[in-house]
Amino acid sequence: MTKWYRENASITAENLADEWMRLKRGSVTRRHFLGVTGLSLATAVLARQPGIFSSPAYAQDLGTTMSLATWPNYHDPATFEAFTAATGVAVEVNVFGSNEEMLAKLQAGGTGWDLFVPTNYTISTYVKLGLIDPLDMSKLPAFSQASQSPRFTSEGAVDGTTYALPKNWGTTGMAVNTSKIKTKITSWKDFFEVAMTEADGRVLVHDYQLTTIGSALVSLGYSFNSIKPEELAKAEELLIRVKPHLYGINSDYQPGMRATDAWMTMCWTNDGAQLNRDMPEIAYILGSDGGEIWTDFYAIPKSAANKPAGYALLDYLMKPESAVKEHIANGAPTTDSRVMALLPADVTSNKIVYPDEASLTKLEFGAAVTLTDPARAELMARFKSA
Amino acid sequence: MPLTTDRKRQLTTAALVAPAGLWLFVFLVLPFMAMVVFAFGERAPEGGYQAAFTFAQFANLPSRAAAFWNTMMIAPVGAFLCLIVAYPVAYYLSIKSNPKYRLVLVSLVVVPFWTSLLVRTYAWMYILGSRGIPNLLGMIGIEDVRLLNTPGAVLLGIVYGYLPLMIMPIYVSLEKLDRRLLEASADLGAKPVSTFFRITLPLSLPGVMTGVALVIILLLGEYLIPQLLGGGKVFFIGNALVDLFLQSRNWPSGSAIAVTLVVVVVLVLSVAMHIAWKVSGSRQVELV
């Protein structure tokens, strides 16, 4: 998947074909099909007449379009449809595979994003570089600090000023197609070993320095966040040894896993939950040797062209009733107890989404230094061009 | 004082050249100069560029040797494969096909360009993916074949995508071919095969060279096909550049690679063209 494509499409060709087949089989409704493929948003935009749906709650002029930068398979398209219906603002969705890519775009300027989804470890750097605005909390009445779990949300504030509001938390584990891979995989060490043996040519790693280098470090017994030259050198050696055996280097791994071109991948909670929901043979496993735990946030770039709409969408997403629908669709665990209370039992009891506390103890939050460390950036680039 | 004819002519020339010259200066020369300056700079602590004078970026070039090597190998191989496929098509179109339908047939060659290369390459992802050809192979008992994300898939995508660019120049040069030469050759007793190799092929070489040069030049900057059909594993210089600018945020290193690529391309092409001119004995070859 190219960067260009990810930025410009809200659905991949594979998704479209999948959904089309599901529609033809009658296993989804037409409405669902239109929703997930983004067609209904397109229809809504085309059919929209200014003024008719404008709600009095949005007295300020929000314009007609806004732009959101986020991650693959991370939202319920129905959310944006409802937002468009309520406000008259159509949401253009850009999809990225790494925080570094988002940072590069913001540093180069002229992104046009009004809202984007950075991960916890990047926020302090965005603040330092002056790329994001402090949030005006008076425009975000739906957000409730009291119901947030501080364990996950503290990095949204820098020196007491809130710059970002939590979207959800999650983990970085492994998705394994157990009908193809018989070896029992429990750790990152297993992941890289099986990638070179039983699953030769069938394993995906992220196009993302944090998780790809981090998981390689963990498999060698080092910290996920290490920037020590000798540890990074060992991780590079491992990654370059694994590379000829990989299926690909791509952060949008759902299409490959669903088509069973790939049998195992580095995987985020939400993708793990979505894959397992549709294909029960795909298991989601957390490394017993460690890995990443993370929180994604919403932030507003300083360069945003339509800040009122950015605030409006952010506030809309902070409403527990919108957040609960998003949660059910994308499968990433919430940081907000108000949302937790509204969730159906089958979501809260899902061990992929809400794993046992014991399996989380070895996981590490990404560290800010990994975002800007030149050695990690160069290692990733060397690994890819090797 | 009235303008002299010479002066008038000069002014006309200047007026005609000015728009293109200005365009190239602003969008080619200036950015290239910026790139050269960047190439001697340093990566800023958080990424981007900061002023410096160092050769470190050039010293780091060997770390991208694999990407250079891939590009330098796959581009000529891809162009050669295109040529093998394109020549018979162009030959048929210009010599063998019924002149009544020729225009329609030639238009058909161009039809794929009406759809974006991106969309067409995505179609290949689907055909080569597990639910495409490997699925059909599975039905006849050949299990778990993997086609996508291999160098073969990238080559296939290249031949598919660039074929029209090879067919057209060859077609044009064959169409201009004086048929009386072929008749003369036959009259003098040459067999069709030797007529082809001694008359047709040499006279179509300018078209072949143009096609090869066109395809190679574009391939050296190729990014899309290796990314989609190579899965980020079959890496071209284009992909390395995107990475350096959009992931590692190492503009100086990216600039150094880009400058080197330009220099290498100019060198390789001038040598290749020099040889081509010698071989074809003609100086009609144009790069584009």
From TrEMBL, chain A:
Cellular localisation: Periplasm
GO cellular-component term (any): periplasmic space
Main location: periplasm
Gene Ontology molecular function, alphabetical: polyamine binding
SUPFAM superfamilies with a match to the protein in the record: Periplasmic binding protein-like II
Key words, A-Z: Periplasm, Signal, Transport
Protein name per its UniProtKB record: Spermidine/putrescine ABC transporter substrate-binding protein
Protein species of origin: Neorhizobium lilium
Automatic annotation (TrEMBL), chain B:
Keywords, comma-separated and alphabetical: Cell membrane, Membrane, Transmembrane, Transmembrane helix, Transport
Membrane topology: Multi-pass membrane protein
InterPro entries: MetI-like (IPR000515), MetI-like_sf (IPR035906)
GO BP, one annotated term: transmembrane transport
Gene3D superfamilies, A to Z: MetI-like
Pfam family, one: BPD_transp_1
Subcellular location(s) of the protein: Cell membrane
Domain ABC transmembrane type-1, chain residue ranges per copy: 68-272
GO cellular component terms attached to this protein's record: plasma membrane
Transmembrane segments: 12-40, 67-91, 103-127, 153-174, 195-219, 258-277
Family of this protein: Belongs to the binding-protein-dependent transport system permease family. CysTW subfamily.
Protein name (record): ABC transporter permease
